């Protein structure tokens, strides 16, 4: 499961791990003690492996690294930067480190630093994104590194999973599909917006800030895209967007909240348990992968 701030908390993380996947706690800008609480609550619900995502650019990244080491979290994914400065400490603690990368160049850098695997995430993904599509990124990363490559971005069913394996991936990461899991605690309005999304309902905001974000269209995105055409600074733009994800996830404001979701939202049609989602994808993938091979 892809790490999603305010979304992938202990209930969903444990459900994914219990269903045979790898749940990942999304830390966002949470401090170390908040992360510790999530780790311990997750352990109350599962005795299976799960991970924690470290946002490298977070002001609390140092704290989070210390906590995951102290709590003996088995797996860490990283995003929003190069985790090189944390690699030695994490590896010395026996933690598997899997950075999320938007390019083959960064994939090679983190492999040299000691990464155990990489998540090659295409721009179809929800939330903060790079510029390369999954279809183009995954095979180039697979050719560039010798560690396992996990494909992410635009994958929501077994067909996408089968395609990812044909591109050279050894695993897949999903985010948007798990937003509508029954165990996910996001507001029902958020889930309903994802389920109702069509193939053209995804949009990217904030490209000019250097931190583009993929979300679903609503009144907020219309206003923010209009402001991007005005003389607004990146700092002003980021300030206006601050808190809007929480508004969607917690407050249920699907009009003026930031409804982060990937382009795969158009493939998501119903709420299911995490177990049902994983089993359905695995069954579809086995059928489609076998048809491709034949």
Considering DSSP H and I runs of 4 or more, what fraction of the residues is helical?
Answer: 40-55%
Structural class: alpha/beta
Tally of alpha and pi helices: 13
> How many strand units?
10
Q: What's the pLDDT, averaged over the residues?
A: 92
- What percentage of the residues does DSSP assign to strands (E)? 5-15%
Cα gyration radius (Å): 18 Å
Strand order of the largest sheet: 1-2-3-4-5-7-8
Poorly predicted spans: none
The main β sheet shows up as:
7 strands, parallel
Shape: globular
Oligomer: single chain
First and last CA, distance: 29 Å
Order of helices and strands: HEHEHEHEHEEHEHEHHEEHHHH
Textual characterization of the structure:
This protein is α/β, with parallel strands linked by helices and about 290 residues long. Among the domains are: about 1-100, no CATH class; about 190-265, no CATH class. The protein is built from 13 helices and 10 strands. The strands form 2 sheets. Strands 1-2-3-4-5-7-8 form a 7-stranded parallel β-sheet. It has a 3-stranded antiparallel β-sheet with strand order 6-10-9, with helices on one face. Helix 5 packs parallel to helix 6. The chain starts with 9 loop residues before the first helix and ends with a helix.
């Amino acid at each position: 499961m892809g790490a999603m701030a305010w979304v992938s908390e202990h209930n969903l993380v444990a459900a994914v791990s219990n269903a045979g996947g790898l749940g990942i706690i999304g830390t966002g800008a949470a401090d170390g003690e908040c992360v510790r609480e999530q780790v311990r609550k997750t352990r109350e619900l599962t005795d299976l492996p799960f991970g924690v995502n470290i946002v490298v650019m977070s002001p609390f990244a140092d704290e989070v690294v210390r906590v995951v080491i102290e709590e003996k979290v088995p797996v860490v994914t990283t995003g929003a930067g190069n985790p090189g400065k944390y690699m030695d400490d994490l590896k010395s603690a026996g933690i598997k480190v899997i950075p999320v990368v938007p390019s083959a160049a960064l994939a090679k850098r983190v492999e040299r630093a000691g990464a155990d695997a990489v998540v090659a995430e295409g721009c179809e993904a929800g939330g903060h994104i790079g510029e390369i599509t999954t279809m183009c990124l995954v095979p180039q990363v697979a050719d560039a590194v010798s560690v396992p490559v996990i494909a992410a971005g635009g994958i929501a069913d077994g067909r996408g999973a089968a395609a990812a394996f044909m591109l050279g991936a050894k695993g897949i990461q999903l985010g948007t599909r798990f937003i509508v899991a029954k165990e996910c605690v996001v507001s029902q309005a958020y889930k309903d917006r994802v389920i109702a999304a069509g193939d053209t309902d995804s949009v990217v905001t904030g490209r000019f800030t250097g931190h583009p974000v993929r979300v679903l269209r609503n009144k907020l995105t219309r206003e923010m895209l209009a402001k991007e055409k005005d003389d607004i600074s990146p700092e002003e733009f980021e300030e206006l967007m601050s808190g809007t994800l929480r508004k969607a996830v917690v407050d249920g404001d699907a009009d003026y909240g930031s409804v982060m979701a990937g382009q795969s939202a158009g493939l998501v049609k119903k709420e299911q348990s995490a177990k049902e989602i994983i089993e359905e994808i695995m069954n579809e993938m086995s059928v489609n992968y076998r048809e491709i091979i034949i």
